[in-house]
Amino acid sequence: MELFFNRFPLFLDGALTTLLITVLGSLLAFVLAMVVGILGTTRNAAARAVATAYTEAFRGVAALVLLFWFAYAIPQITAYELSPMFAGILALGLNVGAYGAEVVRAAINAVPRAQTEATIALNMSWPRRMWLVLLPQAWAQMLPTFGNLVIELMKASAIVSLINVVDLTHVADELRQTTGETIPAFVSALVMYFIIAQVLIFGMRMLERQANRRLGRAPAGGGLLSLIRPPTPGTKVGAAK
């Protein structure tokens, strides 16, 4: 691991770039997922058609193809050129947002029908019904899958190295070429990716705990911390079933 400690500033810069792309891509994906997912639950046929078209189009196209399209094809067919980092954020956000939209739609539809009927009986408008009753209950169901999507987006962000964004993968590959030390370079990148993933998992678990607490549900564990948390009071470790 001598290479890692000697080139730590380079790995740190690459990790920060990876984290920035992950955060911004996740924010874009989240906004798209919420908007498109909610549209997919409405009774308006045109709104549902738009939601379905977006979801099927961007779920069915590889993020790598989108990345190359935004980075190389857009400048040839328009007068605009996207920066490599923005092209990466856009490609990842659009791709993961399509998966997230289905998560939102399914979570809202999973709210018991009686809840919707109660809001109708109280003469609530559709926005109030969605904001005050349906989304708070669906939110807790969305978060575990959203957490998985954020981790997938973080790992998929490695493709931006192919358009010369100096992320963690790009740093590792450059060191491999300049030093010839393939294993140390990519083991170092693996460790940094793992650390970023654990930070993201911890953040998502905190959001899950908060959402479940508001609904009076028991918080769910996860990540490495779930392996070392103390047993539930009243249980015996290693007791026979």
Automatic annotation (TrEMBL):
CDD domains, A to Z: TM_PBP2 (cd06261)
Membrane-topology descriptor: Multi-pass membrane protein
Keywords: Amino-acid transport, Cell membrane, Membrane, Transmembrane, Transmembrane helix, Transport
Keyword Glycosyltransferase set for record: no
A family per Pfam: BPD_transp_1
SUPFAM superfamilies: MetI-like
Superkingdom, taxonomy of origin: Bacteria
Ranges that cross the membrane: 20-41, 53-74, 86-108, 129-151, 183-204
Coarse class of the protein's main subcellular location: membrane
Subcellular location: Cell membrane
InterPro entries in UniProt: AA_ABC_transptr_permease_3TM, ArtM/GltK/GlnP/TcyL/YhdX-like, Ectoine_EhuC, MetI-like, MetI-like_sf
PROSITE patterns per the UniProt record, alphabetical: ABC_TM1
ABC transmembrane type-1 domain sequence ranges: 15-204
UniProt record similarity statement: Belongs to the binding-protein-dependent transport system permease family.
Protein's UniProt name: Ectoine/hydroxyectoine ABC transporter permease subunit EhuC
Organism whose genome encodes this protein: Streptomonospora wellingtoniae
